[in-house]
Every structure is written in structure tokens, then in C-alpha cells.
Amino acid sequence: MSSGSNSLVAIQPLLGESKRSLLSRVRSFIWLIGKLAETIPLPFICWLGMNILQGSMPPFQIWASGKLVNAIQVRIDGHQANPWLWAILMASGLAGSRLLAPTKSWCEAAIHEQGVPAVHSRVLERTTEVDLALLEYQAFHDVALRIAEQANQTLKETLKTLGDILTNVIPIIGAILIISRIHWLLVAALFLPLIPLLAVSLRQGDLVWSALSKQTRDRRIAQYIAARFSDRQAAKEIRLFGLADELIQRWEVHFTATRKEMRGKITRAFLRLQLGGTGADVISYAVLIWAITGRFVHLTAADITVLMGAFMTIGNQSFQLQQATLDIGKHGGFAADVRAFLNLPAPCAVIPTSATIPPQPLSITLDHVSFAYPGATANVIDDVNLTIPVGQTLAIVGENGAGKTTLLKLILGLYQPDSGRIFFGDRDLQSIPIVERQALMAAVFQSFSRYPESILENITIPKGHDAAELERVISEAGLDRMIADVPDGIETILSPDLGGIDLSGGQWQRLAIARAAYRNATILALDEPTAALDPLAEVDIFKRFAQLSDNRTTILISHRLGMTRLADRIIVIEHGKITEDGTHAQLLRNNHHYAELWEMQSRWYR
After folding, report:
1. Lowest-pLDDT range of 84-93, 396-405, 479-488, 564-573
2. Residue 562: enclosing H or E segment and its boundaries?
3. pLDDT of 138-188, one tens digit each?
4. Distance CA 495, CA 54 (A)
5. What's the order of all strands across the beta sheet hosting 569-574?
6. What is the mean pLDDT of the chain?
7. What's the CA gap between 482 and 84, in Å, rounded?
8. Is residue 1 over pLDDT 60?
9. How far, in whole angstroms, is CA 274 from its chain's centroid?
10. Beta carbons of 576 and 379 less than 8 angstroms apart
11. Of 58, 117, 421, 585, which is least surrounded by CB within 10 A?
12. Selecting from 3.40.50.300, 3.40.640.10, 2.30.30.60, 1.10.10.60, what CATH number does the domain 364-446+520-605 have?
């Protein structure tokens, strides 16, 4: 299998935006409606029924009005008739239509409150289930942004669009059935001009979404630039280097261009809608007048009342239906994105289980493992064979870009190899359920997450609070004094913009180490765990690290070779291959690349 092929195959559903047919987007729109219905079926069925009943009211009113006029005419001619019956029926229909509205609104609110978040949360969940390598593709981020931007509002509008279709299609069908009893020619005059209008409206909506899709990268850049102004880290450079004017100009280029283009697309679509609807009305009324004045059909006063009511009603309903059809084209593109996103392979999906799986110490074996990033021409990990016995502390050393962190992510199952296999014990890593993997592993990455929560939550998330275990890891990470000094102790919120405080880089790094230790996993990965610490603090962490690694299989990446001395074994990575393997003393005696790195770093401390 070629380098990067796993990820390339997985990302294909997101690369077909321009190739998706209009029909496929309509099918995706129907699929999305089905997803909403699945999440909250009873309110959805109730809402659907209310829309159908509401849509049935206009044709019922037209039919009843014809009967009323006919009864009045019969009564005027001196014959027996009861117009009051039809008048009561018309009033009942009008009252019923008004009474349906509150029930429909209640059902719609329930779907908005429960169904819309359920679909949106499923998209967020899938983001954590896909192969981490997919995050290297622009297509992934483009679709993720479009969904994030549009999800809440578009899911609501999708529901509204379906309601508009029902409340406009049913009156049109009802009117056609009523008019067909008078003459088929009148039906043709009403219905035929509508068909091309709906096709044009659907296409216009599709064009609007396609334009929105093409602008995704510009909107991402605009959002990124705007976020720099409120980012505490970026704000320092913006002020120090005087970057504000330049960044604002760049933001305006990306932001204004996208908004101007979209405004033009929407305006042109609306004008075509208006002109097309007006033209269809002119044709329909011309045929109606021609049919009546040319005596092609014989009409009574009641027939004329029905026809005029039907044509006026359907004229309004047709325009609303065109707008809803345009929305189908637009929302169908969003639905296609959501569908493709949820269909991405999910190797990291959690399979629900009630069983508690105690972590078991396992050896780790890499068998001819290779991996390349998307679009790369060479492997970043190239045919690596490696065995890490249970309880061993392994240090991975190499220059920037050698593949150290990538190798670690492969071992942790965050990336899938393009070729070769990784075993934990005698089991292929990819066959181990994600819940079991999560129980086995813990890690401290160089770029770790800083949650705007309390110190307690930052350490224990997502596990429960175990006081004895918490006290142990706080002590191991050297956080005791810091927690004693902050305003609210362990409940202190770590976010100044939420009324809390911020920590220094070294304090955050200690907290990240405590978070990993609290999981009590049997495999511990540390990627530059002392990068934010000064040399004195690093010495302290060295001592605590020995405790942290006790009874665990530990994999350590560090550019500071003083820390790698603590490892039982050291491997050197160069251009994705293991070039040296041994203890610190052995590698110094070999006098190769590791010895050169050690000599270079040791000079700074002489």
C-alpha cells in the first residue's frame, strides 16, 4: 500500500464537493430530515401531522367557498338551499388553522431543543473518532468549519424548509384536484409553468451553497486573523511589532470578498425567483382569461369563484414553494457535507460497554511500520522494527523533523500505519477496542490542552474524584505549594477571562504531568515533558519522573539529553529510521550521532 493511502482513501468522501450531483444533494436533504426524525420521533410525527393539516386548509376553504356561492345562488333563484352549513364549515376551517399553530410551534421547539443538538453533537463526536491523520487535510478542516458555522441555524432552517414544502405543496395539489373537475386545460395553465420554476430554484440554491463552499478557506483565514486580536498570546506580538493595521487589512480582504460574492449570488437568485414567479403568474392568468372569454369551458358563478380563489392562492403558494425549493438546493449541500463527514471511517469510535477493563502491562512491538503524511513524497517513519518490553523506559532522540513524535502517535494508535503492524502483547493495536486502549495509555504532549476549568477538573477530567490518588499525583508533580498559594485552592478556575487565574508555562506543564499520572495507565508517553521548565525545575522533575515511571512502560521524547539518561534504553531516529539503540553509556561509547548531540549539549553547562 502506498504512503498515506489509508488517509487518502478515508478523505475521499470530503473531496467530492464539486462532483456531487444535484439529485444526490436532494437525497442528502431527505437523509438529514430522517436523522432529525430519528432523534426525537414523537414530536417530529406530531409536527409533520400539523403541517399536513395546515396545508390542507387552503384547498378545503376553496372547495367550501364554491359550495357556499352555489348555495347562495340557488337560494336567490328561489330554490331550497342551506348556505349556513358551508359558511360554518369555512369558519371551522379558519379556526382550525389558527388552533394548529400553537401545537405546531410546540413540536417545532421540541425538535429545535433536542433533535438539532443531537445531530450536531453526533458530528462533534465523529471528529474525535476519525484517524488523526485526516486532520492534516485541508478538506477535513473546510468541511468541519462549514458544518460548525452552519449546523445550528441550517438544521433549524432544514426543518422549516420541509414545513414550507408541505404547507405549500398540499394546497397546490388540492387546488389542482378541484380545478381538474372543471377542465384539464385550466390545470395545465396552472401547473406547467411551475415545473421549470422549481427546477431553476433548486439549481439556484445549489449554486449558492457551492459558492459558500468555495469560500471556506477565505472564511477560515478571516476567522483565524480575527481571533488573534483577542488571543492573549498573539496580542503581545500584535502590539510589540505593530501588526494591527496589516492584519486588519488582510482580514478585510478575506472577509469582504466572501460577503460581497455571497450577496451578489443571493441577490441574483432572488431576482430570478421574482421574475420567474411573475412570468408564471402572467401565463396562468392569460390562459385563464382566454379560456373563459373564448368560451372553451362553460363556467358557473361558483366555478369562477373557485377558479379565482385557486389561482390567487396557488400564485402565492407557488412563490413560497420556489423559495423552499431554493432552500433545498442550499441546505442539500450542507446535508451532503454532514453525510460525508459522518460516513468517514471511525477507527477511534468508542464501542459502548458496561465492562470495566483493568489495564494490563503489555509489551509493544512494531513490525515493519511505515507512515507518511498527506501529500508527502517520502515516509516520515520508514520500515521501523522495535520491541519495548513491559516496564521499560524508552527514550526517543533525534533532530527536529526526524519522526519522533510521529512514531509516538503511531504507538498510541492516534495514527494508523500505512504499512506494517503494531502489537500490544499478541494483539494488533487496531483490533483493541478504543475503551481498552484509553485505559492502557496516558500521555503528556508538548502542546497539551489547557481547559478553562478548575485545577481539580484539569487534573481529573474525565475520571471521577479520588482524594487519595489526587493527593498522590499532586505531590508527584510538585503542585502542592502552587495550589496552596492560589485564591481558591484546587477549585481555582484556570482562565482569567472567566474570573480565574492563569499559570506559568512550567506550572501548566506540571499540571499536565499530574493529569497523565492520575489516569494510572500502564503505558505512559511523555513528549518534551520539561520543555517549559527552567534547568532547576527540570532537575526536580527528573527526580519525580523516576517515581512517575515506576511500574509503567514509559516512552519519553526529549531534546534535553540530560533527561534521557534516566531511560533504560535510548533509540536515535534519523529520517524516519532507527539508527542507534542502546543505553546512554553504550551510545556514548559508540561515538555516533547520539554522542555528538550529547557533547554539543553538555558544552552549555561547562
Report:
1. 84-93
2. helix 561-564
3. 778 888 888 887 788 888 888 888 888 888 888 777 777 777 777 776 777
4. 51
5. 441-444, 523-527, 553-557, 393-397, 569-574, 577-582
6. 80
7. 85
8. no
9. 35
10. yes
11. 585
12. 3.40.50.300
User: What pLDDT, on a 0 to 100 scale, did the predictor assign at position 358?
Assistant: 58
**Phi, psi angles (nearest 5°) of residue 378:** -130, 155
* The CATH number of the domain covering residues in 14-342: 1.20.1560.10
> Is the model more confident about 8 or about 528?
528
- The C-alpha atoms of residue 134 and residue 519 are separated, in whole angstroms, by 27
Domain ranges in the chain are 14-342, 364-446+520-605
Give the whole-angstrom CA distance, residue 304 versus residue 289. Answer: 11
Give the DSSP per-residue string, 488-500: TGGG-BS-GGGT-
Q: Measured between alpha carbons, how far is 32 from 159 in angstroms, rounded to an integer?
A: 9
**Which residue has cell 531511560?**
567
pLDDT tens digits along 65-110 = 777 777 777 777 767 777 777 777 777 767 766 777 788 888 888 8
The pLDDT, as a whole number, for residue 2 is: 40
Q: Among all chains, which residue has been given the C-alpha cell 460516513?
A: 343
Q: Which residues are within 8 A (CB) of 398 and not within 5 positions of it... i.e. 6 or more apart?
A: 404, 572, 573, 574
Could you tell me which residues are beta bridge partners of residue 574?
577
In order of 294, 410, 557, 584, the CA distances from 590 in angstroms are 107, 28, 21, 10
Give me the phi and psi of 426, to 5 degrees please: -105, 15
Got the DSSP string for 235-292? HHHHHHHT-HHHHHHHHHHHHHHHHHHHHHHHHHHHHHHHHHHHHHHHHHHHHHHHHH
State which of 51-60, 332-341, 406-415 shows the largest mean pLDDT.
406-415
User: Residue with C-alpha cell 451532503?
Assistant: 336
Pick 381 or 136 by higher pLDDT. Answer: 381
Task: Kindly tell me if the per-residue pLDDT of 606 is higher than 60.
Answer: no
How far apart (Å, rounded) are the C-alpha atoms in residues 462 and 351?
A: 17
Is 265 exposed, middle or buried, given 0-12, 13-18 or 19+ CB atoms closer than 10 A?
middle
Q: What is the 3-state secondary structure (H, E, C) of 426-466?
A: CEEHHHCCHHHHHHHEEEECCCCCCCCCEHHHHHHCCCCCC
In this prediction, residue 353 has a pLDDT band, given cuts at 50, 70 and 90, of low
Quick one: pLDDT at residue 598? 87
Q: Helices marked H in 181-243 — which ranges?
A: 184-191, 194-214, 216-228, 232-241
